[in-house]
Amino acid sequence: MVKYRRENGVDIVLYLDDGLGMSEGYSECQNISEFIKSSLELAEFLINEQKSIFDPVQRLEWLGLIWDSVNFSLAVSERRLNDAKESLDNILKKFPIISARQLAQFTGRIISMSPVMGNVTSLMTRHLYFAIENRKSRDSILDIAYTECVLAELRFWSDSLTNLNQKKFVNDTLPNIVVYSDASNVAAGAFTVEVNEKVFHSTWSEYEKNMSSTWRELRAIQLALYSFKSVLKNSTVKWHTDNQNCVKIINRGSTKMHLQCFAYDIFKFCSKERVIVQPIWVPRSENCRADFLSKMIDIDDWQTSPEFFEFMDNLWGPYTVDRFANFANSKLKRFNSKFWNPGSEAIDAFTQNWKNENNWIVPPIDLVSKSINHLVLCKAEGTLIVPKWPSSSFWTLLFRKKHGISSLCIGSH
User: Fold this and answer.
1) Among 24-28, 36-40, 321-325, 389-393, which range has the highest average pLDDT?
2) For the residues 176-201, what does the mean pLDDT come to?
């Protein structure tokens, strides 16, 4: 059913028997609504008229979330938010005389809000889970080992629950800084890409040398964050590390207390300095300038033939920047690459403003939708090359049943 509707130019998402459709204008949305309803009837589905909304609206509750197309935002419904606040108030009134059931109920409600609030729901519930796991039974009074830590997380949610209840579909700021960091048993180092290449280095003490590799990698990230504070402030940062545990811990926290402290400190730093850190794992060979290029394997790499590029360049060129390339397959002198490449103008095309360029865009398949959105965000022009895949999620961003082609494309009007 999803494929059939998307092939007919309908933007729709299904979760079990619940569906959400959308369009740019009221009348077009009304037509889509009638199309969906008639297709359900033709397929002999039973429609719950009382719970269904077939008249187009710009704000509705679906799957316990408020979808707002006026503000382009997503929020937890007032009902769910009030339930969480009530659970939290009851816990704080009786703390620390609380049961595992009470704490688990509240924690579960927080975790369910992750589509809106993000990874902070996991990061700032770690000590709550530590306490729950030490239960004797679900209804017995908890013996909380880290009372202050648990209370700090509860107070965090008391102060932040309402403020965190909105997720914007469009980010107001573009990711603009790329950082690579690494740690050995001797020292730590990090460098920024294209921010006057600032370099961080620190030699480990005897104590630090004896810590685990994950501890040292997290310590390196923590120290580099503080070292680059003036550069990173009010920015979105793509942070590359060759330690997979670091990526998980920064995003979701750790069950090990000494590592959780790093995650919490990094979170506090980012909140204070308005920094968004996006940790990304890379193989160790790709985290070294000297041998990065010879050992990089990009499974998403694909390209057009030189003859096809020449044809398109004669038709709609001249192009100025190849946005997804490397030194071996770039079609233009100016190109962006995923990682460090000789001659690359930028690391990661999404850190760049594409405006005032004629962009040649041949992205990995999983980045097609993001490429379209970035093109619109930058109010830029270019040629996007994608495979013919009508059932893909990006298809309706490009093609509509009514006009045959999206308004984003040349020839759509």
Assistant:
1) 321-325
2) 81
Residue 410 maps to a domain: no
- Give the domain range for residue 2: 1-57
Calpha distance 201→190 (Å, rounded): 7
Beta strands in 285-344 (DSSP E): 321-322, 336-337
Residues 229, 104: Cα–Cα separation, whole Å = 37
Assess whether the previous peptide bond of 283 is cis (omega < 30° from 0).
Answer: no
- For the chain, percent helix, then strand, then coil, each to nearest 5? 40, 15, 40
Same domain, 242 and 331: no
Q: Let me know whether 192 and 103 are in one domain.
A: no
Question: Same structural domain for residues 389 and 322?
Answer: yes
CA distance 101 to 152: 19
- 217 and 323 co-located in one domain: no
Q: What are phi and psi of 99, to 5 degrees?
A: -100, 165
Phi, psi of 106 (to 5 degrees): -65, -45
**Sole residue written with tokens 């403020």:** 163
Rounded Cα distance, 405 and 324, in Å: 24
Q: What is the pLDDT of residues 91-132, one digit of tens each?
A: 999 998 999 999 999 999 999 999 999 889 999 999 899 899
- State which of 118, 136, 168 marks the end of a domain: 168
CB 360 within 8 A of CB 322: yes
On the CB side of 319, CA atoms within 13 Å amount to 25
